[in-house]
Design a protein that fits this description.
The complex is a heterodimer of chains A (about 650) and B (about 230). Chain A is about 55% helix and about 15% strand. Chain A is built from 24 helices and 17 strands. Chain B has about 230 residues and is mostly helical. Helices cover about 45% and strands about 5% of the residues of chain B. Chain B is built from 7 helices and 3 strands; from the N terminus they run H-H-E-E-E-H-H-H-H-H. In chain B, a hairpin with a 6-residue loop joins strand 1 and strand 2. In chain B, helix 6 packs antiparallel against helix 7. Chain B is elongated. Classes of the chains: A alpha+beta (about 650), B mainly alpha (about 230). At the A-B interface, helix 1, helix 2, helix 3 and strand 3 of A face helix 1, helix 2 and strand 1 of B. Strand 3 of chain A pairs parallel with strand 1 of chain B, so a sheet runs across the interface.
Chain lengths: ~650, ~230
């Protein structure tokens, strides 16, 4: 492989430089030629970014593959301090691996960004990405594109991305969503159980078997108590944005001790406690009432004016008198108050709580509708429903109840766990549940808006194309959606889950979405790019293949496709709505549900990440130390190289 | 300019052949194996570096002691080593068979049939584990079969000569149909004679030194026989 080939390679390299400015430099060119010249056959200039990304993503896939699904395994992670975490959460596993390869770090960034949006599908992300890369490699090999592999691959990546912008949305909206509804109604899902099944499906893939049921029960109870049967969308948004203030963790107890407590639990104990017996006026103060002389070091001596101390005392007395005038029974302070204030509170039977988290105080203000007091230092006044002390684990905490008329009732989710690591995971999963619900709501609402615009513009066309199967689906979905035209505030909880189901927002878990999408992509007639469709369709099946064994996979696929065929054969529209209560013969328990929108987001994110990976032009190693790298220890940072990458769009 | 060159090449493109597809498939499997092993190491706490190995191009791992480690070079068999006849018996046998195939068109000296003699080079019946692949080449067996010889444990003829197959009894005459040239046959005769003599001396020898020297002589004779036979190919 000798001199002649090396020269010809250099020649091609120079030419490529002018045409594409895309080449990969890995230490020295000689090594590159060695690693890509296999047996000197016609493929000696394969696309290196495809090879590299496939090897990197292949490794990540091998790591997460065994943890997929409710029957997947867990990874035991140990720290040098001896702390052990057993986890199945894809995000956590990937963050714990030591990855310095720039492509791996880029994939990790994409995964984190995706999971911030939907909190779902980290492992499926990696599986789908690996399957797509393999599919692209297969297609490149089969077509045997010789010298021009890199541009072909990049072109393919762009086409896939373009597909994800427009046509993919169309397929989802017009094919998947209606069929999702039909599947759900066919399998007899009741709208009351949808939340349970959604939450259960999410948790089952992330926690151990024994913990799933307990946590599911607690989370659903929490949701129901907060929403009290009222506006579900508002509840979900509220929970999603305030979950950090609305939960408390307790270590040392078993998970079964988790519960929901009415009111807001503040993780401090009352400094001065008198039970106000019922509702009480509370004052929120953000600064110290008196002047705290903190004992600094022993060598400081202060010289003050002779009446300074008395003046300070007078000011304090005035403030306290005005507080008393307001008939306040509870003081909530975000800072520490001096001892004199505590004494005064004890004397006057006022409950005092210090060092409260200001985020929680803000939440209280917002919920309860406060009045602002004209006195400058005394800021917010509100009515509390009750104040109490709670004992959680080994600690005593304060609990504040609020009146809330039309907004969600404040409850606190108390999560218990035997060890901090496990507790951390449980908290993470709980947050993820609410992120998922929020994403589901928002996407359903935006889909409705889009569909309304679409159906308004298409009303004329529908009558003309009545015979066409697709438009009959549109007509039926239009009739369903007519009752979803209501503005957001009219959505009450009774009809909410039912409407979610009708809109096709949920689908049975375990590969249904992938099978459906595979089927529709392969049969897509009007959606342009057949190569992209085929690639995506083949890659999608990797997720059910990992979940099921070979035989069960084939069974599941044939079963689903036969159901689909049966449903599309039903010509009469009225019969479709009567499919509601047909139970599937084999299964008694309805399978858990997952959100269609998070799956859709997953596919889009994967295609975007794929595009970024395959358009990498060069990896340049520089010699500056890493600036911020959360997982490396400090001794790794000296002399480490930082890797930049250019991408050629 | 380069684009034109690319167009010309595309014009002559053919779909990859069976052999190439097999090569691609084998490489894919190897890549999968590498990924799996690397994944295991990552879970054990190794760090994935941004560099590639110089020999094989796999991504390097670094353990806690800051030592770099290439999975493919150190653990898996090399991609190309298995084709090297000097290192692999199977590769050597396939090479031998390929050469046989190449020499098939030349007619045999007995001339009784034009079919391939189902024999290995040493003139002995081929051992079982080579029979399967060679059965494709076989036609109806030749009539003048060589006398069935005591078959020692067969080592392929190209292994390094550390353990030469010592054959104490060899057929007396040139029943080997591959020796045509009279000079070669006489050379072989002489060597065999010396071999026989050395064997007999070895059986009666008493001293250690003499035995060692006789063994060396026998080894030398076997090597010269081998190189004589090589001359036939």
């Amino acid at each position: 492989m000798q001199l002649l080939e090396w020269h010809s390679y250099l020649y091609h390299l120079k030419i490529n430089l002018y045409n594409y400015t895309s080449f990969v430099v890995l230490n020295t060119g000689a090594k590159w030629s060695k690693c890509s010249h296999g047996k000197g056959n016609s493929m000696h200039e394969e696309c290196v970014s495809l090879q590299q990304s496939l090897s990197v993503v292949g490794v990540l896939e091998c790591v997460v593959r065994r943890c997929v699904g409710p029957e997947g395994g867990s990874v035991l992670l140990t720290r040098d301090t001896g702390e052990i975490i057993i986890t199945r959460h894809g995000q956590r596993i990937l963050n714990t691996l030591h990855l310095e390869h720039p492509m791996a770090r880029m994939v990790l960034d994409c995964v984190s960004a995706h999971s911030q949006v939907t909190a779902d599908g980290t492992k499926s992300f990696i599986l789908l990405l690996a399957a797509l890369l393999r599919g692209i490699q297969n297609s490149a090999d089969k077509h045997g594109i010789g010298q021009s592999t890199a541009p072909y691959i990049r072109n393919l990546a762009h086409r896939l991305l373009a597909f994800s912008y427009k046509e993919f949305d169309d397929i989802i909206t017009h094919k998947i969503l209606p069929n999702a509804y039909f599947y759900c109604s066919r399998h007899g899902y009741k709208s009351s159980s949808i939340l349970d099944l959604l939450v259960g499906g999410y948790i089952a893939g992330r926690l151990g078997i024994g913990q799933v049921d307990i946590l599911k029960r607690v989370l659903c109870e929490f949701y129901h108590k907060v929403s009290q049967g009222q506006d579900a969308v508002k509840t979900i948004t509220f929970l999603h944005s305030h979950i950090s203030q609305l939960h408390t963790t307790v270590t040392g107890l078993s998970i079964g001790c988790s519960e929901v407590i009415e009111g807001l639990v503040v993780t401090r104990d009352w400094s001065v406690w008198t039970d106000p017996n019922g509702s009480a006026k509370a004052l929120i103060i953000h600064e110290s009432l008196g002047f705290c002389l903190i004992a600094a070091s022993n060598n400081i001596s202060l010289c003050v004016q002779h009446d300074w101390l008395s003046r300070i005392d007078q000011a304090l007395e005035q403030k306290l008198a005005s507080v008393l005038q307001l008939q306040v029974r509870v003081l909530l302070s975000s800072v520490k108050q001096p001892e004199s204030v505590l004494q005064w509170a004890r004397l006057n039977h006022i409950a005092l709580l210090e060092c409260v988290d200001s985020a929680q105080l803000d939440l209280l203000c917002r919920i309860s509708g406060t009045e602002t007091v004209p006195h400058p230092s005394l800021q917010h006044l509100l009515m509390l429903k009750f104040c109490s002390r709670v004992q959680l684990g080994g600690h005593r905490y304060a609990c504040l109840g609020t009146f809330s008329q039309c907004v969600p009732q404040i409850h606190t989710l108390v999560l218990c766990g035997p060890a901090p690591g496990l507790l951390d995971q449980i908290v993470c999963v709980s947050r993820g549940v609410f992120t998922l619900l929020e994403h589901l709501c928002q996407s359903i609402i935006s889909t409705q808006k889009q569909l309304n615009e679409y159906t308004n513009s298409e009303t004329d066309n529908i009558r003309e194309t009545q015979e066409n199967c697709e438009s009959s689906v549109l007509v039926s979905s239009q009739s369903q959606r007519s009752d979803l035209d209501l503005p957001q505030s009219f959505l009450s909880s009774q009809g909410f889950w039912d409407r979610i189901m009708r809109a096709g927002g949920v689908i049975p878990i375990g590969g249904t979405f992938e099978f459906l999408l595979h089927h529709f992509l392969l049969n897509a007639r009007n959606h342009g790019d057949s190569e992209s469709c085929r690639l995506l369709a083949e890659a999608l099946l990797c997720v059910p293949r990992t979940l099921f064994s070979r035989r069960r996979f084939l069974d599941a696929q044939t079963h689903l496709l036969s159901e689909l065929k049966e449903m599309t054969n039903v010509q009469d529209l009225s019969k479709r709505s009567e499919l509601k209560f047909r139970f599937n013969e084999g299964s008694t328990l309805p399978v858990c549900l997952e959100s269609v929108s998070s799956k859709q987001q997953l596919v889009v994110s994967v295609l975007q990440c794929l595009n970024r990976l395959l358009c990498i032009g060069a990896i340049l190693h520089t010699r500056t130390p890493l600036l911020s790298h959360p997982s490396t220890s400090s001794e790794d940072e000296e002399g480490e190289t930082e890797n930049l990458h250019l991408s050629d769009y | 300019m380069a684009l034109n060159a690319a167009d010309d090449e595309d014009f002559e493109w053919e779909p990859p052949s069976e052999a190439e597809m097999k090569v691609i498939q084998a490489r894919r499997e190897r890549q999968d194996k590498i990924s799996k092993v690397m994944g295991d190491y990552l879970l054990k706490g190794y760090k994935m570096l941004g560099e590639c190995c110089e020999l094989c191009g796999t991504i390097l791992l670094q353990d806690k002691q800051k030592k770099n480690y290439c999975v493919a070079c150190q653990e898996l068999d090399s991609d190309i080593d298995k084709d090297n006849p000097a290192l692999n018996a199977q590769a050597a046998l396939t090479q031998v068979r390929e050469r046989q195939l190449a020499t098939q068109p030349t007619p045999e000296s007995n001339g009784t049939s034009s079919n391939d003699p189902p024999l290995s080079i040493t003139g002995q019946p081929r051992p079982e584990h080579c029979e399967g692949a060679a059965s494709g080449l076989r036609g109806p067996p030749l009539n003048p079969q060589p006398a069935p010889l005591p078959v020692p444990a067969v080592n392929p003829p190209f292994l390094p000569p550390s353990n030469p197959p010592i054959q104490p009894v060899l057929p007396p005459g040139p029943t080997n149909t591959l020796l045509h040239h009279p000079a070669l046959s006489s050379a072989e005769e002489a060597v065999l004679h010396k071999l026989r003599w050395a064997t007999q001396e070895l059986q009666h020898s008493v001293s250690v030194e003499a035995s060692i020297q006789l063994c060396n002589l026998i080894r030398g004779c076997a090597e010269s026989l081998r190189s004589l036979k090589e001359l036939q190919l």
